[in-house]
Amino acid sequence: MKKIEAIIKPFKLEDVREALSEIGITGMTAIEVKGFGRQKGHTELYRGAEYVIDFLPKVMISIVVRTEQVDACIEAISNAARTGKIGDGKIFVSNVDRVVRIRTGEEDEAAI
After folding, report:
1. Own/partner pairs for 92-99, CB < 8 Å, 24+ apart?
2. What pLDDT was estimated at residue 43?
């Protein structure tokens, strides 16, 4: 099993959810986060004073899938989240050793 975490632009969340749903992924967690990278941030004007916004709003989605689903998930997320502009995000894949569904006690792939 693998855990896929993707950092995407907030307005792309629904597109990514739909793309994952189309390939049979039925659950994910989405968290509003802030971060910076190559996009660097921008300046804004507030009450006549200019200030720098370093941390930009993003959404981090997290899903756990069977190993054979990883490539399809990465492709779905990439295609749905891509704008072609800086700040489109990143995808991280890591191993998951164990999953337990609290309600039923099911474990591993049965619990996904």
Report:
1. 92/4, 92/5, 92/6, 93/2, 93/3, 93/4, 93/5, 94/2, 94/3, 94/5, 95/1, 95/2, 95/3, 96/1, 96/2, 96/3, 96/64, 99/1, 99/64
2. 67
